[in-house]
Design a protein that fits this description.
With 96 residues, this protein is an all-alpha fold. The chain has one domain. The protein is 83% helix and 0% strand. Helix 3 crosses helix 4. The protein is rod-shaped and about 80 Å long. The structure holds zinc ion.
Length: 96
């Protein structure tokens, strides 16, 4: 009986997210990996969570780039609008 046998399904599932984030101590990560290797149920849960996390990270990256572009566009638009308004404001005021 090795130290890895201390890991039961509840322990492993409670630490899946931490393990995916690489936050477990090396000895803990080895214990979780050893359990996953011999437990199809936990392995399935682990794979599902890993896919979810990868998908989430992909979405975050996909959203982040356009947001940076939108921020630049908004800034450029605000600047152009301000120039436009300040350059024609006198006429608009007298015309109104
Ligand atoms: Zn298990």
């Amino acid at each position: 009986m090795s130290a890895d046998d201390r890991w039961n399904c509840a322990d492993v599932r409670a630490r899946t997210a931490e393990h995916l984030d690489g936050e477990l101590a090396p000895a803990e990560a080895r214990g979780v990996d050893a359990h996953l290797a011999g437990c199809p149920d936990c392995r399935a849960g682990w794979e599902a969570e890993r896919r979810l996390l990868a998908d989430m990270r992909r979405r975050v990256q996909a959203v982040r780039a356009p947001e940076a572009v939108r921020a630049r566009l908004r800034a450029a638009l605000a600047h152009a609008l301000k120039e436009e308004i300040s350059s024609r404001a006198p006429h608009d005021v007298t015309d109104a």
